[in-house]
Description:
The protein is mainly alpha-helical. It contains 4 helices and 3 strands. The chain folds into 2 domains: 1-46, Rubrerythrin, domain 2 (Single Sheet); 56-183. The chain is elongated. The protein starts with a strand and ends in an 8-residue tail after the last helix.
Amino acid sequence: MKKWRCTVCGYIHEGEEPPAVCPVCGADRSRFEPVVETEGEEVDQPVAASGPGASVADHLHPILAHFPNGLMPSVFFLLIAGWLFGRGGLDEAVLWLVGLVTAVVPLNLLTGIRDWKRFHGGVSAPIFHRKIILAVLLGLLGLAALSVRLFGGEGLYPVYLFLLAGMLAASAALGYLGGQLMFGSGHRDRG
């Protein structure tokens, strides 16, 4: 059986012909190339750069991407802990975390676009468009949440919580799409 590699994301497809659309990144059939295997060689998905040639700059986007993914669940943990134990000071910690997430979003977006162009040729595929839209949405929700909390008063606290929930959903969706892009749609099956 033939193997085809998506030149956008590195996904390997087995079949007589490439798929009409890459199931990982959404690139069309023209972005697939045949994989030539030598005897006994196994074809792997691409791996991130490592070793002497790799630098922090090569990994800046994945590093920054983990800020929202780690901090937004922490925001809700602290909100719940503050409510359960009557610790109002935790609300200030939440505000600082939301500020940090919001501050990281522009850097994350810029490094993500840089990596998209560098590693995926800037190919126009739905997965990249979704990630850009979600990143912009995350940043706007963060700005709105900060504005509501700092200038809105206690009456708008439910709106603040709603905006934080939107930030959590956007960061989770970004993480999910990033995982699909890096590891493929069937990455759970890999050991």
